[in-house]
Amino acid sequence: MRKLIISLIALMTVTIMQAQQTVKQTYLTLNNGVQMPQFGLGVYSIADGDDTYNSVTTALKCGYRHIDTAHAYRNERSVGRAVKDSGIDRSEIWITSKLWPNEYGEGKTLKAIDRMCGRLGVDYIDLVYFHQPIGDYVGGWKEMEKALESGKVRAIGISNFDVNDSIWNSLVETARIKPQMVQIECHPYAQREHWQQMAKKHNIQIECWFPLGGRESKGELLRDPVINEIAKAHGKSAAQIIIRWHMQMGFSVIPGASNPDYIHENIETFDFALSNYEMHRIHELNKEKRYFNMPYEDQVKWFSQYNPAD
């Protein structure tokens, strides 16, 4: 009897390991040749401490290999602790974080990246963004380029620089090294077609925040009848259809979640594909309707006052 129990436990362990290995990640090749896991977990608005630690731990066990955090989220330490405790080789986990505007500038940005490494408990960071287009981002970008060339970071990017063409061009058109990534709000109701073209010009990959609409959407995208009709046809949820759409569009997608059920659900998008017709139907939903609509002038005022602690 004891041998039977041991055998069953061993079989269960193998089954669990096999289940975890069924998730076949897809990768995006950045304009510097680095490959990044296309799908990941965003930890925006997840409280530091056990909430973030447990969310990242659950995600890594499910097969996630890409975690997106930021200095402004104040949960980098918990992300780093979960990565370390996972037992997964550091080289297999893509860690993204973002610098805040008060960390931009020559003489500031390299030191800020060192502090970020300290909070995360790592020797290098896979991707570092400028979080907002405020402050001395032109001067700071020169130090981002140095961090990239030194190996302190593997890729550099800009987040929320889709305010207008002028702000975008003030960095992208003058940069010695073009960004590898741009992170913007993007989902079926706001497909950001202009910014797709702007990014394509320099082979910059797009990463999407609020891919499911975020809290401000109040679930509007998840209730869309077209998306739900497609979901029913595939035996999937509306969220899984939207995530799959992002992936087939060639975007990186980082849905946020702290609920273990949602973390599991969101990654179950590698075992099916949307047809060209289904992709077209979702494309037709575009109305460039964003859910974050704070005027840039108000962003400058608010973000300039915020100072995330180390």
Which range does the strand content fall in? 5-15%
Q: Between the first and last Cα atoms, what is the distance in angstroms?
A: 56 Å
Q: Can you tell me the residue ranges where pLDDT is under 50 for at least 5 consecutive residues?
A: 1-21
Q: So what's the overall shape? A: globular
Mean pLDDT: 92
User: What characterizes the major β-sheet?
Assistant: 8 strands, parallel
**Helices and strands, in N-to-C order?**
HEEEHEHEHEHEHEHEHHEHHH
Strand segment tally: 10
Broad structural category:
alpha/beta
Helix content: 40-55%
Short descriptors:
single chain; 310 residues; alpha/beta; eight-stranded parallel sheet; two-stranded antiparallel sheet; 12 helices; 10 strands; 14% strand; disordered N terminus
Explain what the structure shows:
- The protein is an alpha/beta fold and 310 residues long.
- The protein is built from twelve helices and ten strands.
- The strands form two sheets. Strands 3-4-5-6-7-8-9-10 form an eight-stranded parallel sheet. A two-stranded antiparallel ribbon has the order 1-2.
- α2 (50-62) packs across α3 (76-85).
- The protein is globular, with a radius of gyration of 20 Å.
Write the layout of secondary structure elements.
Layout (H helix, E strand, L loop, with lengths): L1 H20 L5 E3 L5 E3 L3 E2 L7 H13 L3 E3 L7 H10 L8 E6 L9 H12 L4 E6 L6 H14 L2 E7 L5 H8 L8 E5 L7 H8 L4 E5 L15 H10 L3 H11 L3 E2 L6 H8 L8 H8 L12 H10 L5
Parallel strand pairs: 3-4, 4-5, 5-6, 6-7, 7-8, 8-9, 9-10
Antiparallel strand pairs: 1-2
